[in-house]
Design brief:
Length: 272
């Protein structure tokens, strides 16, 4: 039974193959793109470079317009003039300082940990102020590796590092690209409107913001603020010579000696 079925299948396949071999072969469908290469033959205008006249006309049109209409220029006289960028522009970094000139950074290493490019190098030391635990002995940023993402500004809890609108970062060698603490503490500008990406807390009170930005010792600043508040709340006693002060009470006039006080009468004895 199995041998008969196998023979029948083989004979049918042989007949189908012979039928296909005898039938004419179908032609493939035409390709949607050319299958042969033909060399490009430039025309007379291209051989005479006449299409360049169109580009020269555009150049001359812009040249004459900028020459006789200075207001339509797109260029500026750099570096005398600079473009106005957004306050969230991420330019050169700035290490902020306290009123005494010391760096505000406390060497917590949060900026170095948050940096995706790992371009911040910090070496910490003990701060002489008891209110501040550490300060950065070495603070360096590799500008070639920095991607100017602003993560260091977001991670800093002391607002010790901000970014400016300064985009002049040209160096002559690789050593100049590693910017140290001394260069980062030099502010690009003293105008707050020219600073770049930095944290802002408009919801805080003005007194707390001034204390955070200006106070060197938060403990002493809090104590001074409390004392000034108590002094302003306490009423001031007028001085004796001040104008409008009430006169002192008059002393009694001298007179005859007062009679000696009489002893009180004896108490009545209770009735039997």
């Amino acid at each position: 039974m199995t041998a008969t079925a196998t023979t029948a299948t083989t004979d049918g396949a042989a007949r189908d193959g012979a039928a296909r071999a005898g039938s004419p072969r179908e032609a493939p469908p035409p390709a949607p793109y050319p299958t042969t290469t033909r060399p490009y033959r430039p025309g007379l205008a291209e051989r005479l470079y006449l299409p360049l006249l169109g580009g020269l006309a555009v150049t001359m049109r812009h040249f004459l317009r900028n020459l006789f209409r200075p207001g339509s220029r797109y260029t500026i006289e750099y570096p005398e003039k600079r473009r106005d960028y957004s306050h969230r522009f991420r330019g050169h970094h700035i290490l902020t300082t306290r009123p005494d000139g010391s760096v505000r950074c406390v060497a917590c290493f949060l900026c170095a940990q948050a940096c995706p490019a790992e371009c911040i190098h910090i070496e910490a030391g003990e701060h002489p102020d008891v209110n501040i635990e550490k300060y950065p002995v070495v603070y360096e940023i590799d500008m070639l590796r920095c991607v100017f993402c602003g993560y260091c500004v977001d991670a800093c809890p002391e607002e010790a590092i901000i970014m400016s609108n300064n985009y002049d970062m040209a160096y002559f060698n690789r050593d100049q690209t590693v910017v140290g603490k001394a260069d980062l503490m030099k502010p690009y500008t003293f105008d707050g409107n020219l600073l770049g990406y930095r944290p802002r807390y408009p919801e805080e009170e003005a007194a707390h913001a001034a204390m955070r930005h200006e106070a060197f010792s938060l403990v002493d600043a809090t104590r001074r603020a409390r004392e000034s508040q108590e002094n302003s709340a306490a009423p001031l006693a007028p001085s004796p010579g001040a104008a409008g002060a009430p006169p002192p009470p008059a002393s009694p006039a001298p007179g005859p000696a007062a009679a000696a006080p009489q002893p009180p009468p004896p108490a009545a004895s209770p009735a039997p």
